[in-house]
Amino acid sequence: SSMVIYADGNNFSVGANLYQMKQAYEEDRIDKEISEAIEKLHYTFNRLKYSLKPIVTAVHGRALGGGCELVLYSPFVVAASETYIGLVEAGVGLLPSGGGLAEMADRILSTSHKTDDKQTSMSKVLMNIGFAKVSTNAYEAIRLGYLRETDTVIFNKEKRVEIALKRAQYEAETNYIPTPKRQYIALG
Predict the structure, then answer these.
(1) Helix, strand, or coil (residue 179)
(2) Three-state secondary structure call for residue 37
(3) 93: left (phi over 0), alpha (psi -120 to 50) or beta
(4) At what angle do helices 100-109 and 115-130 cross, to 10 degrees?
(5) CB 3.0-4.6 Å disulfide test: which of 31, 80, 114, 164 passes with 60?
(6) According to the model, what pLDDT value does residue 188 have?
(7) Which Pfam family is one of this chain's hits (predicted)?
(8) Which strand ranges, in their side-by-side order, compose the sheet holding 76-86?
(9) How far apart are the first and last CA of the chain?
(10) In a domain, 183, yes or no
(11) Are the C-beta atoms of 79 and 153 separated by less than 8 Å?
(12) Whose CA is closest to 66, among 108, 26, 107, 101?
């Protein structure tokens, strides 16, 4: 068996409700509510990444903040070409807290580049996140590291779920191998 994650509407996900966070802050509920939400988010995203069954995410429109992080953690992605992806939290004075920074680092560190290249790549990622850079399309999302070279980009967004279902079925039928957990030595 397998699973496909998708959303109807104009956007995949634009992330957390910042108004709700503001209310929690004003009512002095922020520490408890936010820490619980972040813990659940980390648990969910790690279950997604290390799932024993293939999971394909079909993304379109905007995938911002937590929506971007969900895409980052997805083992397979089918993205409409007109997809705008980014970790935008810094634009409102926050840090991405769903694990997006760690996943971006994991992608860089798991490559076969030299250490110097990895440090340069990580610096570029941090600059993009610091400036809340959003891709202008799915191809730029690949260049920015929000999508992988192995992710599928399609032109007709209406076909994204159909193609994602086919990919999920293919992976389920061809001995899907879950993402292995890795450990790294800190750079520097």
Answers:
(1) coil
(2) helix
(3) left
(4) 160
(5) 80
(6) 61
(7) ECH_1
(8) 3-5, 55-64, 76-86, 152-154
(9) 42
(10) no
(11) yes
(12) 101
pLDDT band (50, 70, 90) for residue 115: low
Backbone angles phi, psi at 78, to 5 degrees: -115, 115
Number of domains, the chain: 1
Within-domain flag for 181:
no
Q: Is residue 187 part of a domain?
A: no
Q: In one letter, which amino acid is 72?
A: L
Tracing tokens 């790549």 back to the chain, one arrives at 121
Q: What is the extent of the structural domain holding 29?
A: 3-173
Task: Look up the CATH number of the domain holding residue 23.
Answer: 3.90.226.10
pLDDT (0 to 100) of residue 118? 85
Of 54, 12, 5, which Cα lies nearest the Cα of 138?
12
User: Alpha-carbon torsion 54, 106, 16, 137, what sign?
Assistant: negative
CB atoms within 10 A of CB 36: 10
> Strands, E, within 48-165: which ranges?
55-64, 76-86, 152-154
pTM to 2 decimal places: 0.91
Q: Which residues pair with 58 in a beta bridge?
A: 78
Helix axes 66-73, 100-109, angle to 10 degrees: 30
